[in-house]
Structures are given as structure tokens and as C-alpha cells.
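FAQ: What does a multi-protein file look like?

Like this. Sequence, then C-alpha cells, then the next protein.
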Amino acid sequence: MLVSILMPVRDDVSTLMDCLDSIQNQSLNEWELVVVDDGSSDGSGELLLEVSKQDPRIRVLKEPPRGIVPALNQGLAACSGVYVARMDADDRMHPSRLEKQLNFLKGNSQIDFCGSLVEAFKIAGPISENVKKYHRWSNSLLTDEEIKRDLYVESPIMHPTFFGPRKLFEFLGGYQENPWAEDYDFLLRAVLEKVRFG
């Protein structure tokens, strides 16, 4: 398997089908979706099982609610891809996201791990100015130098855009429980190991 998509889910039934559609319509076809249903009670688990019957690339791990870090680590342990891409159930992938990120890493040997640009969307209502500001800032950080320069401002790579070799996720020890955000912690530990971003 080339790319494993790692996605925790808890009570996301309202956004789940749009998310799954965006994954199933990727220009890159060689992927598996490892979904950890972290104790959903809104029908998300049943929906996931139904979709997985129609698409063998989707694997669902059903667990009692333990939180995002245990869910991510359980899913990571089940990933078989050479690369791991993170995804959240309330987001959508650009149709060529996986292909572009894969080609980006393959074509830039000086980069170990990448994110992607993002575009904010809401099902209803306006997007807040704070969200727009954060997205503009994150989208402006393109190089390893820029990402590391602003690393201590806020998490510079948005979690649902993480993409890197599975061996790198494993080398960094997966995700860890801390009082701060698990994705930010992952990037901070990656910097200590001289991981190069893009």
C-alpha cells in the first residue's frame, strides 16, 4: 500500500459522507483509509461500516471513547502504507491532495514531512476573522525555514494536512498525551529530530 489515511472519528455523522466522498474521489487510487471510531453514538460507526462494505480500501476500528491521542496511535499502528496522511472527519480533501503531496516529497529529497495549503469552509454562516487570519498565516509558511521560524507562534502546519513517511511517524513515537495540542507536540518533537518541513 502506498498511502494510509489516518482518521479518528467521534460523532461526525453530519460531515462524514462529504469527507469520505472527497477521499474516494482522489486522483491517487492506491490508498487505504484507517478510521478509528472513538466511541461514536450518533450513527457515525454504522455509516462507516456500511461504506467499508462497498470499498475494501476503508478499514474501521471500533473502540470505546478514549480520546484523540489513543485513537490516533491505534490507527497509526494499523496503517500499512509507505506514507501516512492525516485527515479529520469534518474536512474535505482537494481531489489531487494525496497525489500532490506524494509527488512533492518524492521530488524534494531535502524535505521529510509536509502539509498543504488550506481553504476554510462552513456548511452555514460566515467564517470568523480569526479563522481566516490563522489560515492566511499558515498558508504563507512554505519553506522549512519559514515554518521553523514561526513554529513557536502557533502550530504552523494544520493537522489534517500532515503527510509523511510512516517510518517517520513511528520514529517520533506517534502521538503523545500532553496538556497542549497533540499535533503541535508532534511538530515540536520533529524539530528536535531535525525533521525538514515543506
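And here is the next protein:
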Amino acid sequence: HSGYRFNYVIVDDGSSDDTYGIAQNFARWRPNVRVLRHRRNRGVGAALRTAFKEVDSDLVVVLDADLSYEPMVAMQLIEALDREGADIALASPYVRGGSVVNVPFMRRFLTRGINRFLSLATGGRCSTLTCMVRAYRTAALRQLEFCTNGKVAIAEMLLSALHKRMRILEIGRASW
């Protein structure tokens, strides 16, 4: 047992399939699971803002629904926050211990290139700005400024954290 109490917020961002119904069914007998819905797709930034409004804990972990990282990375991120006293912990395929597996070459090439370019904007302080798999101290999360609704919000949040001089760490993890 980890000693943590977990609550889950699932945001269905305008899915056209039965994602919302499946999520509601999953939550039906689980009082620690909330399912929220955007009737139309508004983007990852909007989905994150919707989820963050529901947070009532000291720590927040964000995982994407496609599970591009193993779910156990959530606990590893929480432990890294505690161990290092950081404000934000990022799962990163681009630092020691990280890798990208089973991703087509062109996507790997483009994603790596985009992250190298964005890393320049951080003065090299972060290797991965586009991965949303992160853990936050809620006090730090509440200070982040991001207004875009699309995927750019993920990098925007991290740039806001860097601007506010928050302590950010990256842990190497495999992404697929």
C-alpha cells in the first residue's frame, strides 16, 4: 500500500464513440472516480482546465487516455516529487533512462526535433515539453497560466512554471 489516497477525474473531450458511457460505467460503483464531459471536442488544454477545477488533493498526476506510458509511471512521478521536493515531475523519453518504443520513425524524428527546439526556449532546462504525463503539487498547479485549448497548452504550462521559477524534474521513462 502506497499510503496515498487516490481520486480519479476522467474528462471525455467530445468523443464520438461510447467513451463517455464506458467511463460512467467504470465510475458507477467507485466513489473516488468522477467523469466529466465536453459535449464537443475542445482540446487537451480545455480538458485539463476542466479536470483541474475538480482537484481537491495535494498532488495531481496527469495521464493521457492512450496510455503512451505505463500507468505505474504515476507512482514513480509522485515518489520523485516527494524525494526531490520538486513542484512538477515529468515523464521523459529524452533523458537518461528514457526511450521511445514502437513509434514510427517519422513521428519519433519529428517529436524529438520539436522537443529539442522547445528545449532551447527553456535554456536546456527541460528536454520534454510536449509530454502531458506529469505530476504536480497542487499549490504549484494553481499558479500555472495557460490559455490555449489545444496541445500547445502542455508546453505553455511548463513554460509558465519555468517563468515562475518552479522546481521541475524529469524522470526517464519509456514511451510508446
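Q: Is there any per-entry metadata?
A: Some entries carry free-text notes. For the entry above: The mean pLDDT is 87.
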